[in-house]
Design goal:
single chain; mainly alpha; 6 helices; globular
């Protein structure tokens, strides 16, 4: 497998970021709905329409649902990539690391998914983020080492993932388009 940044790869990467963000927020949304909360969802958020969950304990379950689906995605694509070795699928493994890494940093501005759950269990604001990001980085590192993907290729992939994520976050904040609800 050869790691090169070509237009087709950049397109696949942006699509992977969109799909990953959608799956993450959909996991929050569907979990909330299953628990009996009427939920709304955008590209970068899911929340109860009423502003509050029907039960206080729902907050932790709904908060962790997104990161868990993101980890499941990374694990699935780690194994898929080891079988199929198609470089254009690599962002579906790589982006989950970038996504949870920046989510962990964003805890500085206010607790998000892993931060809220960590605080509610007395684990601190960053503990779960560090564990999740570390695990996702391990999967990326292991795959990159096995297939000799260069540091340059991985740094460019990181940069493209970050730019794509920030574009989605900006677009979501600026246009406030609800996907569901």
């Amino acid at each position: 497998m050869k790691g090169e940044i070509r237009l087709k790869y950049v397109g696949a990467l942006f699509l992977a970021v969109l799909i990953s963000c959608f799956l993450h927020e959909f996991a929050h949304w569907i979990t909330g709905e299953i628990l009996g909360n009427r939920m709304s969802m955008s590209l970068n958020g899911a929340s109860p329409i009423s502003g509050e969950y029907t039960q206080k304990w729902h907050a932790n379950i709904i908060s962790i649902a997104g990161p868990l689906i993101t980890i499941i995605q990374a694990i699935a694509f780690y194994f898929i990539l080891n079988k199929q070795q198609k470089i254009n699928l690599y962002p579906l493994l790589f982006f989950p690391f970038v996504y949870r890494f920046f989510a962990g940093i964003a805890n500085v501005f206010g607790a998000n998914d892993e931060g809220r759950v960590g605080l509610s269990f007395g684990l601190g604001l960053y503990t779960i983020s560090i564990i999740f990001s570390g695990f996702l980085l391990f999967l990326v590192w292991k795959f990159s080492a096995k297939y000799k993907l260069s540091l340059k290729f991985n740094l460019l992939t990181f940069l493209l993932c970050a730019v794509s994520l920030f574009a989605i976050v900006f677009f979501d904040q600026y246009f406030k388009i609800k996907i569901i609800g």
